[in-house]
Structure formats: C-alpha cells, structure tokens
Write a structure and sequence with these properties.
By secondary structure, the chain is an alpha+beta fold. It contains 6 helices and 9 strands; from the N terminus they run H-H-E-E-E-E-E-E-H-E-H-H-E-E-H. It starts with a helix and ends with a helix.
C-alpha cells in the first residue's frame, strides 16, 4: 500500500515536471526560434509601440460630436462612429464590445432570427451612408457579405477585395489620393488563398490603414 502511494506521488511529480514545465518550455523555445512572429501574436508596431495584431481585427472610429461641440455620450460612455478616413473592418459581435480578443465568439443568432435581420438592416444602412456619397452607384445588392455579417470569431483582421474596392472610393476622395494609389496599397496588403486554393483572398485592414497614415494625407 505504502509502495503504491509513493509510486503514485513520484509519477505525479515526474509527469508534472515533464508535461507541465519541460514540454511547454521546449514548445515555446521552438516557436520563438522557428516562428517568432506567430509565437508572439504577430504584433504590429508603429513608432516603437504596439498598435495591434496582424491576426486580430479592430475598430477605426471617432467620437460623435454633439451640437454643443462636445463629444456625445450615452450612459457615461462616448458615442463612436466609423472614421471615414480609414478602411472599416468586418463587423464584430464579441462579448464585451467589438473585436474583444479575450471573448472571441459569434452572435449565436440564426439566419431567420428577427434580431439578425434588424442587425443586418442597420449595418446595411450604415454602410450605404458611409460609402454611397463617394460611390453613387452603390446599391444594397452590391454590398459584400463581409460588410454586413459578423464572422464566427468576431476578430477577422481582413475584409474581402470587393469590400475594399467599394471603400476605396471614399478613401481616395477624403485623402486626396488617386485610384491607382489606393488600388496599389490594397494589392500590397492582400493575401492569397491558403495553400493556393483554400478560402478567398483577404485585405488586412490594420496594415492597409497604417500604410495610409504613412503617406500622411
């Protein structure tokens, strides 16, 4: 009996050491050497400061200014709206606020849900209001799915090429850039299909917006 207890304790300590300490350290070491970017979250820096991750979407918003010239608030929190000078990310429905990397999730609402319909209609309305002034031919039928529906993770860092092309009209007008300049940037930050056949090409929104800021217009 005593021998069995001692053996069990030794086994617990040994496997705790191997699987709880040694194995994680080895995997972390391999990751840091072979894939340092992935191992560290593919962080993106600007002026030496972390501004986001290549694999996590984020919002590009500005405060809504009230008639008195001050930022509008609701329940003590500032009311935000899409910043028209930046490409906008795919909508997010993560808990605790959009693009919350600590709560990756989807809306959990079915396609026939009344709430889904209301959310889609609101996003369509916002998308048209934001982009149609710069693209008069834009109709509901031309709006890409990723501009309206949230993804399973709620953290998509990319948008479709179709979505980027529509937003390019607005960006070119507000930043006084030519269509060819915007198209070149979109192409630069567009990744191909996985392994050449999986999924669809995607445009990284954060990298694209940072490139716009570097132009300085």
């Amino acid at each position: 009996m005593r021998r069995d207890i001692v053996t069990s304790i030794i086994a617990i300590l040994l496997f705790t050491l191997l699987l709880g300490i040694v194995y994680p350290l080895v995997i972390e070491g391999v990751g840091q050497v072979a894939f340092p970017g992935n191992a560290n979250g593919q962080k993106i820096y600007r002026d030496g400061k972390v501004v986001g991750s290549k694999i996590i979407g984020q919002a590009f918003e500005v405060p809504v200014i009230a008639h008195n010239g001050k930022p509008e608030e609701k329940e003590g929190e500032p009311v935000l709206q899409a910043d028209p000078r930046y490409f906008q990310s795919r909508p997010s429905a993560t808990e605790g606020g959009p693009y919350d990397a600590a709560a990756s999730t989807f809306s959990n609402l079915g396609p026939n849900s009344r709430l889904t319909k209301q959310a889609d209609e609101e996003r369509i309305k916002e998308y048209l209001a934001l982009n149609r002034p710069y693209d008069p031919g834009l109709t509901v039928a031309k709006i890409p799915v990723d501009a309206v529906n949230t993804s399973a993770s709620g953290l998509d860092p990319q948008i479709s090429e179709a979505n980027a092309d529509i937003q390019a009209h607005r960006i070119a007008a507000l930043r006084h850039l030519s269509s060819s300049e915007i198209d070149a940037l979109i192409a630069k930050y567009t990744s191909a299909r996985g392994l050449g056949f999986s999924g669809e090409p995607g445009v990284n929104v954060l990298e694209l917006n940072l490139a716009l800021d570097r132009i300085g217009r």
